[in-house]
User: Fold this.
Amino acid sequence: MCDALASLLGDICATSAAPNLALAGGKTPLPIYRALARRWSREGQRARIVPTDDRCVAHTHPASNIAALRNAFGDSADCFAITTAEGDANASLAIAKDTLHEFDIFDAVLLGMGEDGHFASLFPGAANLQDGLAPDAHDDAILTTPVPLPPEAPFNRISLTLSRLLRTRSAHLCITGARKLDILQQAVSQTTDLPYPVAALLRQTSVAVHVHWSP
Assistant:
């Protein structure tokens, strides 16, 4: 899956001199990003990248998505933060909105999904989940808090809204494992956004979502 998806995204980006991408954090897509970075380095291409979401932590923190993206892409991409360098939550929301003004339509969006059916940082227990999923949302990003807080990452989050993520020429959802495949199959039949918020992504009809799965 890694090589195939990296090749697909690379081909999409080849149509633009400076492709705009919104990319998920986490460990699963990092091999894809490193493969893209190698290709772009060979071809002399440079991308513009923004995280689909990030935790409100310092950019030196191990949980920082922007730090992971910058490390994976190195000199082959300009990675734009949606949080402050210190991780201040309220200030980060303003940074996110300013950053997203620098991007028009994305050439590609790559999302992951958690075992609770969240994507980006649109969690099922968040008080403002519907603000993030609304098809006519005016805001490009929201400040949100998962409920309950994941013990491995107990932080506030900045997340792009679904409506902003769908301003893209190509959308991809990358998942691994039998458990997540089962959740995705359940979400496909949902007619509401709960229990699995990813249902809203799958239910919308403005952009086709390409699902990539590996065991």
About this structure: The helical segments are 2-13, 30-43, 65-73, 89-100, 129-133, 162-165, 178-188, 198-203. Strands lie at 20-23, 47-51, 53-55, 77-79, 108-111, 141-144, 157-160, 171-176, 209-214.
